[in-house]
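User: Fold both of these, please.

Assistant: Here is the first one.
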Amino acid sequence: MHDTIRLENMGIPSVAVATDEFRNAARVQAANLGRADLEAIYVAHPIQDQTKEEIEARADAVHAELVARLTVS
């Protein structure tokens, strides 16, 4: 989340992506860094035991949101 905030503060659109297990930690970190308004995109946890196809399906599920948030003007 730190790098996302640093980039956003520089005017470079960015989005953190994490598993839902880290939702609360990401929100706390963003708030502590002065950007409580930033929200990551979350996918189901865990991912380390997923097949390539399962991980691709999770990526596909958030692709539209990711593109939308990176291209907002």
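And the second sequence with its predicted structure:
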Amino acid sequence: MRTVGAFEAKTHLAALLDAVSGGEQILITRHGHPLARLVPASDAPTISVDNTVERLKAFSQGQSLGGLSIAELRDAGRR
């Protein structure tokens, strides 16, 4: 993984994007400390919203708030 400083990343963004589109990962630093990482978009996990909603619904089945309502829990946190 190539490392570049923030100033260089700003100055040469187009070239860095070309490198990333070719599969390279680039770590951007500021004053020697890691700040961000450029990675190809295809490396990002692709999870559909519909799939996520269905998984949350399935997870919530059988879950209980112990007889409390969401409003009661919210208000208890505001005390």
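The chain has a mean pLDDT of 89.
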